[in-house]
Design brief:
Elements lengths: L14 E10 L5 H16 L4 E7 L8 E10 H9 L1 H11 L7 E5 L18 H27 L4 H27 L1 H4 L7
Antiparallel strand pairs: 1-3, 1-4, 2-3
Helix pairs in contact: 1-3, 4-5
């Protein structure tokens, strides 16, 4: 049976759900831990709704602390994975080689745009997320406003706002924010001491 620590808390239905898991291998069982983790990844990748898994290994000589970033296409599929017999089995096998229970962190909304592949890195401070989003949103809103004005200029305000917000949201989510986070990565993920 799965330990309660192997299930992240549910927070209502959302699209794309990202789970960041921190797992600590027992220092004397790192090889066994990595084999069990590889088996868990292989099993999870075959599960419906799985969008990908990134395992961040610790640097040589550091504590054997692993970060695992798991993406699902929906919270419902994420919850099905964590409730499945397959997950219970692989988590029980991993637990035999851990020095402490895993820690789960849910990422949704704007924070999921600002994920990093840097081991141990956390999302940037909220003021940096807000500023980067504003810098991205301004040109997107301006672009779509100018482009849609000839078609929607006489439409009621609610219709214009609905269309513009939809165009802006999809442009930000699929085109602009992935690029902005890459371009601003040095500033976004800089050490907290030097904003």
């Amino acid at each position: 049976m799965s330990d309660a620590n192997d299930t992240p808390s549910a927070a209502g239905a959302r699209d794309v759900s990202t789970v960041v898991v921190s797992r600590a291998a027992h220092p004397a069982r790192v090889r066994e831990f990595e084999r069990a983790l590889a088996r868990a990844v292989d099993t999870a990748l075959r599960f419906p709704g799985q969008l990908g898994i990134t395992v961040l290994k610790p640097p040589a000589g550091a504590r054997p602390e692993y970060k695992i970033v798991i993406k699902f296409d929906s919270q419902a599929n994420r919850d099905r994975w964590y409730a499945s017999e397959e997950s219970r089995q692989v988590f029980a096998h991993i637990a035999q080689h851990e020095s402490r229970p895993p820690r789960f962190e849910m990422r949704t909304g704007l924070e999921s745009w600002f994920e990093t592949d840097l081991a141990g890195a956390s999302p940037p401070p909220r003021h940096k997320i807000a500023l980067a989003t504003w810098l991205a949103a301004f040109p997107v809103i301006t672009f779509w406003s100018v482009l849609s004005w000839p078609l929607l200029g006489d439409a009621p305000l609610a219709v214009r706002a609905f269309v513009l917000s939809g165009l802006m949201t999809f442009s930000l989510a699929y085109v602009v924010m992935p690029r902005i986070t890459r371009w601003l990565a040095g500033w976004l993920f800089a050490e907290r001491g030097g904003s």
